[in-house]
Amino acid sequence: MDLHLDSVCVQGGYTPGNGEPRQIPIIQSTTFKYATSEDMGKLFDLEASGYFYTRLQNPTNDAVAAKICALEGGTAAMLTSSGQAANFYAVFNIAGCGDHVVASSTIYGGTYNLFAVTMKRMGIEFTFVNPDASEEELDAAFRPNTKALFGETIANPALTVLDIEKFARVAHRHGVPLIVDNTFATPVNCRPFEWGADIVTHSTTKYMDGHGAGVGGCIVDSGKFDWTKYADKFPGLCTPDDSYHGVVYTERFGLEGAYITKATAQLMRDFGSIQSPQNAFLLNLGLESLHVRMQRHCENAQAVAEYLQGHDKIAWVEYCGLPGNKYYELAQKYMPSGSCGVVSFGVKGGRKAAENFMKHLKMAAIETHVADARTCCLHPASATHRQMNDEELRAAGVGPDLVRLSCGIEDKRDLIADLEQALAQI
Ligand SMILES: *Cc1c(COP(=O)(O)O)cnc(C)c1O
Questions:
Q1: CATH 3.40.640.10: which residues of the chain?
Q2: What confidence tens digit (pLDDT) does each residue in 113-172 have?
Q3: Which atom of ligand 1 is nearest to the CA of 111?
Q4: Is the peptide bond preceding residue 157 cis, with omega within 30 degrees of 0?
Q5: For the domain bounded by 292-424, which CATH number is listed?
Q6: How far apart are CA 223 and CA 334, in angstroms?
Q7: Is the overall model pTM greater than 0.85, yes or no?
Q8: Measured from the CB, is residue 275 less than 6 Å from ligand 1?
């Protein structure tokens, strides 16, 4: 039965049989038993599918990954221990030493650092491009050894909205997949595959969990990118893997399974950034109400953005739901039923004023977190982005005065009252 998205949030990924648990069971087991060594050998050779060690696969994790896969409209998905691990695997699965990747410059600070510093040390070069650049300007960033294009649906915390169709066109013109981090929009508000993206990643730590309970990540493959058409670019998917007796992922698992199977069989095996089954269970509890919560997050953020925009102590407000916002039209196109609960703004008086204002907030807690049921806020220039110099901050769309407010699902009247009393004190 083809379910609507809201029903998939509640019931997707797991269908119990007669007399089986209604809720996804937590399979808290590192290992799985087999009758013969031959049975187990087939699993190690990827000739049969089944569980043998939780570092590679676990039934709880697979059920939750299957739900997210269905929500995004993909063909295969895997959970990871964090959003950082998801983005690292998503790129490293197809790019190695000597390769090059093009990424939007307004991405999350942690991802920027992963790409620009840590993966650079592994021999992968990144070129960061303004997501609003013309197709010609984006084209110019590509090289013969470019393996992927990367962007965020709604960037954290810059809140730029990605023109997914434009990015997909450019990526495909250069024979590489478009990877989209869809953390802020969630599949409830945007499904990047419908606009041409090939791979989607998530920090499930954010709205998907939604209760600040567990750090996690997810990678979903659309199954649409034809690796075999560019076999020389993607030898890891199209030529034999010596660590599995010469399996060729695209031949054995098809376009729908090759990418995720390779990421599981090689990267999970070797790096081991698994999500614990317990955390996957908590994540699923969050997913069951994702569609209901996203509506309220967006409603609250819209009300807060409108309130702040009319306040004389506020220098500027960035929220793509505000008519007149630079990204309003793009947001209407890609996210007609709402974007996210995060609003960025500047308090008049710059960095000092921002810090002073935040000190007076009572409901909105200062946290290195977003997308929680509870409202929270952060001054990125002194926290998540403090590694960046002023020039890098500007390129990332994060000014020194920027306050990132993540509207929770409380009553919006209380959120506005809290902002009002804090603004009155500065
Ligand atoms: C938080 C975040 C990440 C990193 O996720 P973790 O779960 O904290 O590792 C990646 N991308 C985006 C857009 C994020 O907001």
A1: 5-285
A2: 999 999 999 999 999 999 999 999 999 999 999 999 999 999 998 899 999 999 999 999
A3: 10
A4: yes
A5: 3.90.1150.10
A6: 21
A7: yes
A8: no
